[in-house]
Amino acid sequence: MGALQLTLGAIGVAVSVYAWGLFVAGVLRMIKIIRLGQPDATRNGPFVPRMRTLIVEFVAHTRMAKLRKVAPWHWMVMWGFLIGSAALFEAYGEVFYPGFHWPIIGTWSLWSLLVELLGVGTVVGGVALAIIRQLNHPRRADRLSRFAGSDFKAAYFVEAVVIIEGLGILGVKAFKQSSGLEDPPLWSSFVTAPLAEILPSNPDWVSIMAIIKLLSAMVWLVVVAKNLTMGVAWHRFSAFFNIYFKREDDGGVALGALKPMMSGGKVLDLEEADPDKDVFGVGKVEDFSWKGWLDFSTCTECGRCQSQCPAWNTGKPLSPKLLITQLRDHAFAKAPYLLAGGSKDMAGDEVGLTSDKYEDYKKRLESIDVLAMAESERPLVGTADELGVIDPEVLWSCTSCGACVEQCPVDIEHVDHIVDMRRYQVLIESNFPSELGGMFKNLENKGNPWGQNAKDRLAWTEGLDFDVPVFDGELGDAEYLFWVGCAGAFEDRAKKTTRAVAELLHTAGVKYTVLGPEETCTGDPARRAGNEFLFQMLAQQNVEVLNTVFDGREPGQRKVVVTCAHCFNTLANEYPQVGGTFEVVHHTQLLNKLVRERRLVPVAEVAEDITYHDPCYLGRHNKIYEAPRELVGASGATLREMPRHGDQSMCCGAGGARMWMEERIGKRINLDRVDEALGTAPSKIATGCPFCRVMLTDGVTARQNEGTAGSHIEVVDVAQLLLTSVRRGQALERGDVPTDETPTGTPLPNEDKAPSS
Fold it and tell me: Does the keyword ATP-binding apply (predicted)?
C-alpha cells in the first residue's frame, strides 16, 4: 500500500461518507414526502402474488419488453446496476490494495465471467440507450418523439454514469491482469484479457480505475440526493416498490374498473360522507394517495405513455408523461409547506398553520421556504392565468383509453389519477365542459345519455321476423340476459348490431331475454366524466333490477351478454363494487363460442378485405383480442391489421365521456384512426363497440365527402359480418348516416348546447 493508494483511499472514504450520508438523508426525506399522500390499505397485500409479480416484471422485463428495441439494453443496464453494486463496493478494497478481491467468490472463474458480462453489458447497454435517445430526439420528430418534454440533462447524466461504471469495472479487471494480480481463463475474460496485453503492468492503475469507479458512483449519489424529482435516476429504487404496490395484486395493470372514490384510506360512502372531513376526488395534491405520490416519484420520463396517447398524437395538450411530471414537481415543491403542517379547507382558508399565539404562528411561517408557500397557493386544476398545475384542457382531453397505463414500464396509474381530479372538479367545483351538463341531465332524468324515453327501448325489435322475449317477472329457461345498452337501443347504427346479435342468438337457439324499459344506462360516461354520485345512483338502480331478475340463480348462472364494450366493462368489473356480481360476456365471445360449437354455421364467405378496430374497453381494458378476429375469419373475410392494433390500438376518441364533448383542439381522433384504417385498403372496417362504430362512421363519411375514401367503404360490427355469412350472403342493412346529418336522441335545450366551433 503506497502513498498513491493511501491518498486515493482517503479521498474515496471522505467523499463516500459525505455522499452516502446525503443519499440516506434524501431517501428518508423522499419517504417522508411520499407519506404525505392519503392512506390506502388496499396495497398492503397479499404478499406472495405481489412479490411474484415484482420478480417476474423485473427479472423477465415483461413490461419493458413492450418496446423490444429498448428492453434488452435496459435489461443489461439494470443487472449491471443491481449485481454490479458488488463490484462497486469491491472498489473500497481495491483503491487501498490493488490485489483485493471478495473472499471465496473473488477467485471463482464464474464470478470473473459474471463481472466481465456485467461490465460489457453496462457499457453496451448505456451507449445503446443514449443512441436511442438521440435517434428519437424531439428536435427531429417534434410530437412523434416520446422524449418530447423529458429532462435530457438528467437522462444523459445517468447514462454517462452507467457507462463510466461499466468502463471502471472492465478497467480494474484488465489492469489486474496486466499487472499479474489475476490470471483468469480467457473464456471468463474475453474482453479484458486481450485488453490487458496492451496495458502497462502497473498496480497503481488498478487503484486509479477503482477510484474512478467509486467516485462516479458517489457523484451520482450526491446529485440524485439533491434532486429528488430526478425520476430517471430514482426509479432505480422506487420502481420496485411501485410495481409491488400496483393496484392489481394479480399482476394486472390498473385498467378495467376504475379505483373507487376513497377518503382517509376507505371507500367513500356518498350517503354518509361528511363534506367537512372527507375528500371528494382530488382537489389538492395531498388528496392523492401515497401510491399516487409514489407514482409521481417513479416516472422515468421515458415517454412510452406519451407516444401511445391519442390526445397527444392528435395535437391536444395532454401528455400523460408531462401530467405526471407536473404533479411530481408540484408535490415536491409544496412538500415543505405540508411537512410543516400547512393545509387549507375547501374555501381555500389556511387551517393547518393557525395558532392562538402570534409568535408561534410567525415562527412556523418563517420555517417554510417562500417558494413552498407560493406553491401552496396554486390550484391543482386551473388555467395558466390562474397558475394552475394542470390545465383544464389537459384534464378533459383524456379518453381513458388506458394506452398510457398499458405501456408504462413502472406501473403508473394515470387514468385513476385523471378521473380522481375530474371527480373533484365535477362534484365540488361544478367545473366541467358545458356539453357534459346536458348528458348528466339526460342520465339523471331519462336514464340514458341521449335523453330518449324508456318506452322506446324496444324500438329496435320492430321489423324482426321473430319475437324478442322481454322479461316479465320470471326468467324461466332463459340462459342469458341480453343487455342491449343505451346505444344499442337508441342509436340508429348501433341498433343494427343489436338486431344482428338477436337474430344470431335466435338462429343458434340460445334462450335469452331483454329488460326493455327496465334497463337504464350503466353509468359509464358519468363515472369517466367524474360524476361519481350519478354513477352510483344508476349502478345501484341497475344492480337492484339485475339481482331481482337473477333471484334464485346460482352465481355461475347469472349470465349477461352485452354488445357495448363500455357496458361490458362496467357490468363485469365495476358493479361488484356496488354489490352486483354477474357472469358477463361480450357478444363477440358468445358468438365465437357458438361458431366453435357449430350452433352457428357460416355457409357463405364474406369475400372482402376487412380491417378490425380494437375497442379500448374491449381490448386494453379487458384483454379480449382474439374472439372478434376469429369471427372475422369465420365469416370468410380477409383480415388486414392496422399498424396500431391489439394492446397498442389507437382509440376512436369516444371514451372518457369524450363522446359527449366537442373536440376543438388539433386533429379529430376518429379521423386519425380512420386514416390509419383506410391505409389498409379495406372494403369494410369492423369493430365490436357501438361507440367506436359511431366515431369511425363519422370519420369515414368525412373522408368520403373530401373524396379521399371510396363510397363503398362502410363500418360494421363483427356480428353483422357473421350474420351475412350465416344468412348465405344476404345483404346487410346499409345506409349508416352520420349524426351530424341525422341526429339521434332528444335535442338538448339551447342552454345545454355546446358553442359551434
Answer: no
